[in-house]
């Protein structure tokens, strides 16, 4: 009898540790019955993101007036703003239409990798753009020498390589752990905070490294951006004419607005007094879908060069 009970326990234990081959995306909590409304909302923002950033990219590529470091980095930002919402939006819109909510183990790992790769790249890119504005306003006479094409290429490649290492480390730590059930992911896409609790092993190392890694990268980039804009504000205040101060501030106001939209939701998550599942789902949704769709509007509304280039692109498109 003892041997039979032992065999039964071993069988149950082996059955309970069957590797998970797919996960189930639970979506945004407390939105049951609103699937079609949410689908229309997300589809509108996703199309706006694709069209807006594609127009900005075409404008920076075709207009010779925009072949400067500032617009080179803006073109890179548009590329990442096209891909960033594409990590989670298509799958989310499919299950809002009634399709399967399941995502394969490999698909979940890919979502996590590209989410952190693209997100970290944007974080680095905002920092590089802040340095570019610092060089343009604080050292205008040496700007072309400081931000020469070689430096721009090195900075861009460095953001890609650094983000790739960052995302690879996080993905390896999360998915080297065994997953044997449950398999319900409490969000609309796979991220560290919702995948790690599903592991059937000690997750302390992965939690510590991922939290430290993400926190250090975000905090370091934010401090560098803050330092750049502190120097920029000091330089602008030293300009004697009000017209000169206004012109100098207008060149970096769009970037500053994008930085605030990017970091605002992140600060909201980390500074909330108590954990909120709904808030932890809505804030990434804002970063994933809403912010990338607003960047083309932010950079075009207050920038005459971009508006002129966009007008030329649209006229050529209609003519063609």
From TrEMBL:
Q: Which gene encodes it?
A: LOC108634192
The record's annotation in InterPro entries points to: GPCR_Rhodpsn, GPCR_Rhodpsn_7TM, Olfact_rcpt
- Recorded family membership: Belongs to the G-protein coupled receptor 1 family.
Pfam families, per database record: 7tm_4
Provide the protein name: G-protein coupled receptors family 1 profile domain-containing protein
What keyword terms does UniProt attach to this protein? Cell membrane, G-protein coupled receptor, Membrane, Olfaction, Receptor, Sensory transduction, Transducer, Transmembrane, Transmembrane helix
Q: Name one GO molecular function term.
A: G protein-coupled receptor activity
Q: In terms of domain of life, where is this protein from?
A: Eukaryota
Task: Please name the SMART domains in this protein's record.
Answer: 7TM_GPCR_Srsx
Per the entry, what this protein does is: Putative odorant or sperm cell receptor.
List the record's Gene Ontology CC terms alphabetically. plasma membrane
Boundaries of every G-protein coupled receptors family 1 profile domain copy: 52-299
């Amino acid at each position: 009898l003892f041997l039979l009970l032992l065999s039964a326990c071993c069988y149950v234990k082996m059955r309970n540790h069957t590797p998970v081959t797919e996960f189930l995306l639970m979506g945004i909590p407390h939105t049951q019955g609103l699937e079609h409304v949410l689908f229309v909302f997300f589809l509108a923002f996703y199309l706006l993101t694709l069209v807006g950033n594609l127009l900005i990219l075409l404008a920076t590529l075709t207009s010779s007036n925009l072949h400067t470091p500032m617009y080179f980095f803006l073109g890179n930002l548009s590329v990442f703003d096209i891909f960033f919402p594409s990590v989670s939006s298509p799958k989310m819109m499919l299950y809002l239409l009634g399709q399967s909510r399941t995502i394969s183990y490999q698909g979940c790992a890919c979502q996590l990798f590209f989410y952190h790769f693209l997100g970290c790249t944007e974080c680095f890119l905002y920092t590089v753009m802040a340095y570019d504005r610092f060089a343009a306003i604080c050292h205008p006479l040496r700007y072309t020498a400081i931000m020469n094409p070689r430096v721009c290429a090195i900075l861009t490649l460095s953001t890609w390589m650094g983000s790739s290492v960052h995302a690879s480390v996080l993905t390896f730590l999360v998915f080297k752990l065994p997953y044997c059930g449950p398999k319900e992911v409490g969000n609309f896409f796979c991220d560290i905070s919702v995948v790690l609790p599903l592991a059937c092993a000690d997750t302390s190392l992965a939690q510590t490294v991922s939290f430290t890694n993400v926190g250090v990268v975000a905090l370091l980039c934010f401090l560098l951006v803050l330092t750049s804009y502190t120097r920029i504000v000091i330089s602008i205040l030293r300009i004697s004419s009000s017209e000169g101060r206004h012109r100098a501030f207008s060149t970096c106001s769009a970037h500053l607005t994008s930085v605030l939209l990017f970091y605002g939701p992140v600060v909201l998550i980390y500074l909330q007094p108590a954990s909120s599942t709904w808030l932890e789902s809505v804030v990434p949704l804002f970063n994933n879908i809403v912010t990338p769709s607003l960047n083309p509007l932010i950079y075009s509304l207050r920038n005459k060069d971009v508006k002129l280039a966009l007008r030329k692109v649209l006229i050529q498109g209609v003519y063609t």
